[in-house]
Amino acid sequence: MEALGRHVLLELRDCNAVKLDDLPFLRHTMLNAAEETGATIIGEIFHQFAPQGVTGVVAIAESHLCIHTWPEFGYAAVDIFTCGAAFDPTEAAHLIVAAIESKDSEITEIIRGQLPVPSPVTGG
Amino acid sequence: MEALGRHVLLELRDCNAVKLDDLPFLRHTMLNAAEETGATIIGEIFHQFAPQGVTGVVAIAESHLCIHTWPEFGYAAVDIFTCGAAFDPTEAAHLIVAAIESKDSEITEIIRGQLPVPSPVTGG
Prior knowledge:
Low-confidence stretches of chain A: none
Strand content of chain A: over 45%
Oligomer: homodimer
Structural class of chain A: alpha+beta
CATH superfamily of chain A: S-adenosylmethionine decarboxylase
Largest sheet of chain A: 6 strands, antiparallel
Shape of chain A: globular
Helix content of chain A: 10-25%
Distance between the termini of chain A: 25 Å
C-alpha cells in the first residue's frame, strides 16, 4: 500500500480564550506554523465571526491547514493535511498547540489515500 | 457531552481522472455542493499543480470544504467540516462523489468538539 497524505486532526480544549478570538494572532500563528515547518503557502482566508470565533484556512502546496475556534468554550478544531515528505504536520501541530496555550490537546493522525500498489505493467 | 462540529472525510478512489485535473470543473463542483446544501461561502482558493492535480479550499460560515486530487491515481481526498444544523455535510459529500464519478468511495464522519457540559453555575 502507498499512502498519499497524512491528515492530522487537533482537538484543542482549555485554550487561551482571548487568543481564540484574535484574528491577526491566529493568522500569524497558522502562517508561521506553515512557514516554520517548510510548507509553501499558496493562499489564505481568515474570517471573524460575531459575536465571537474565527475561521482560518491556509492552502499550501502540500495541501492545507484549517482552524475553527469557539472562544466561548475555550476550544479550537485544527486540521493539517499534508502530502509528501517536505512538511511535517505534527511539527506544525505542536507550534499551534503552544501558541494558543491549549492545556488539553488531542492529536490524531489519519492516513489518507492508501492505494493499492498497481501491478507492474508487463506490456501487451 | 455537546458536539460542536461534524467532520466528514471522503476517500474517493477510481474517479474520472480528467475531471480530477479540471480546476474550473472542481471549483464549480465544490461551490455548488456548498450552495446546494445551504452553506454560506466566505472565501475560496483553488490551485492547479503541474504536471497535474488540483487543491481547493472553500471557507464557509459553517466551517470548510477541501479537496486535493491526484489524477494519476484516480484519487481525491475531500473533507467537509461543519458546525450547526444549517448545512448537512453528508448531502454535500454525495454531490461531490457523484460529480467526480468515484466508483469506490468511503465516507467517514468524525465528531469534533465533544465538550463536557459545564456544571450549572450555582453562584459564589
